[in-house]
Amino acid sequence: MFRGEAGGLTHRYTLLEKSSDPDHARGFDGSDAIYLITPDRFVNGDPANDSVEGMPDKLDRAFKGGRHGGDIQGIVDALPYIRDMGFTAIWLNPVLENNVAEYSYHGYGATDFYRVDARYGSNEQYRDLVQTAKAMGIGTIMDMIVNHSGEMHWWMDDLPAGDWLNFQDQPVQTSHRRTTNMDPYASEYDRKRHSDGWMLESMPDLNQRNALLGQRLM
Question: Which CATH number fits the domain 29-142, given the four candidates 3.40.50.150, 3.30.750.90, 3.30.70.120, 3.40.190.10?
Answer without folding.
Answer: 3.30.750.90
